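[stage:ingest] chain + small molecule (DOR)
[stage:ingest] validated
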Amino acid sequence: MTSILVRNGLVITSTGIYQIDVRIEDGLIMEIGRGLPASGVEEVIEARGHYVLPGIVDEHVHMREPGLEYKDDFEHGSKAAVKGGVTTVIEHPNTIPPVDTPSRLREKAEILKPKAYVDFALTGVLHDGNTHLFEDILAEGAVGFKVFMGPTTGNIPPPSDSSLYEILSKSAKYNTRIMFHAEDHALVVYFTEKARKLGENPILHRDARPPVTEVYSIAKIATIAKYTGGKPHIVHVSSIDALEAVLNARKLGVDITAETCPHYLVLGEEDYSKYGSLVKVNPPIRGGIHREKLLEAVAKGYFDAIGSDHAPHTPEEKSKSIWEASAGFAGVQTMLPLMLDLAIRGYIPLTNIPKLLSENPAKLFKLWPFKGSILPGASGDLVIVDPNTEFVITPEWLEYKYKISPFIGWRLKGRVKHVVLRGSIVVRDGELTGVKTGVWLKPITK
Ligand code: DOR
Ligand code: ZN
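[stage:predict] done
[stage:export] tokens:
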């Protein structure tokens, strides 16, 4: 029997901010209310003046196991997650081998389980060769699927139009969200060839994948979703044009949702000269109005979710020339701190943090209300944040295998103080205290 009481904190939920106590018993949230008694409780966390958030559900991580452990591994990645306030991760399938059969899904879970500092859920990948396995992968415990429409790490080929139709038809039939990496393959190849001829300035990566590649891909996905009733989730939306394409489709009745990532909200084209290949990511960091408009869209609630797109590579891979370097960078540990900083500085409402980083990801991928909520009966996962402290991101704080991040040296408002996972304090006063007790989460089906 373990029990903790988090007392007098400001509980932030998607619907409001309440000064209220939360009692967790045997891993579950038992009671929420004012002035809950401390008698019989093993530990009281005094949270006056602090924010209390639901544990963060990062719907977009590439933790590299199996097959790519030389880049990073689940032990480091899940440790980093928990230190950044993430208590559940949804792992993406572009590993080696890719997660494209039921047995590969099961094997991946077995590999991750003994290394997990956080709870995790798995996605499968769909391509021309395995759409017939949709049901079997689902039955094995996938919470959703990923489809790559354009080239990126893993080089998983885009589906044919008929496979896309098949995938979205099954998405409708089984009420399953499909995450799309929406950059049109042929257009990316065309623009990359053109950009490469112009030299090796890192900013050319932006021109190799202009917004039209995203818009064109989303238009295709949305068209087929309209006729099948499928449920696409466009991940890592990087341009305002792409968001508009999503919102236009929604107006036509398509059940389409969208995610963006912190890096599109805090980095801009000036960062190519500052960081070089380190900020190479697909889709690219853009210039002009995109960052400002995307931030505005997050504030207004046009996005459904924020994910980190945590995508670690080695220092060697990230220091090559822009065309040779790998795309993506680690981000699971800095997602919540960056978003908290934006909220505390007034760019986005605080209530959007639990909504976009916790509740909605859990809802989209069938983990809600067990994950992503502060409700009686839910998993006892909380993040306690001191909003009045500033902290600087240092390599020593980062738990990644390779301590590289564009955000090293950034000073942020708000500090993740304590993290609670299923009733256990896994981060205490900023220090990791948790052990590898993470579990594999299968979808909640009603
Ligand atoms: O830059 C990226 N890196 N974008 C992706 O979509 C995948 C990711 C990775 O896995 O490296
Ligand atoms: Zn992607």
